[in-house]
Design brief:
single chain; 275 residues; Rossmann fold; 8-stranded mixed β-sheet; 8 strands; 41% helix; globular; NAD(P)-bd_dom_sf
Amino acid sequence: MKPLSECTVLITGSTDGLGKAAARWFAEKGASVRLHGRNEEKGRRTLEEIKNVTGNADLKYYNGDFSSLDSVSKAAEEILAGEDQIDILINNAGIGGGPKSGGRRSTSRDGFEEIWAVNYIAQVLFTRKLRPLLEEGSRIVNVASIGQAEIDFDDLNIEQRYDGFLAYSRSKLALIMFTFDLAEAVKDQGITVNAIHPATLMETNMVNEHFGRSQSSVEEGLEALVFLASSEETEGITGEFYDGRRRSKALGQAYDREARQKLKTWTEEVLSGYV
């Protein structure tokens, strides 16, 4: 892998928590960092903060609301127009569904259950749109979770007996399934794709909002994330699920090719108007 000072790193959900910490870490290493968020004012403020702290002026911010497929598509198009290459893509954006969220089901602008839409559907669209910018040696890291639940293909929009954490857990398993499929699809191009559970209940606004308590620090999660995204030790590794810095196993359904094909077929139909 080339030196980080020669790399362009795009991190979604980088105005807070783990994403912001990662953006700052890569900026400190001299990388060209591309931030993303859904609040433009907050995004610009974060960019200036990281620029001031690190002295790295090679930063850009892209706005996009992952609860809207149209917004995701437009953000990706803006990135395609503004960048020549992405060496590291970290899909970190996401929303929670812990016990403090109240168990209320909400929908995205496109009518999908919101957690499922943001944590899974939007991630697939965004990554697929940006494929032209990924070249040999590029790495994709999808921030998943150890909290996973089997997908019910008769209730993909999670309308029956709704539970927020179930929605979250299914969305993260779906993201891992996408990771495995994409890793196979781009392996011959020299692009690696992995998923990671950085740390359990990190001390972030999202965790506090949905769970009310934390078990680990953002720094712990950051260490694991940058290890997978940029270490020489993880170069060439693809199609894996990491728990922290260790290779681990996802829930069994992630390795079921028939289930992955079902999910892929459904997802392609949903995204057919956008890719």
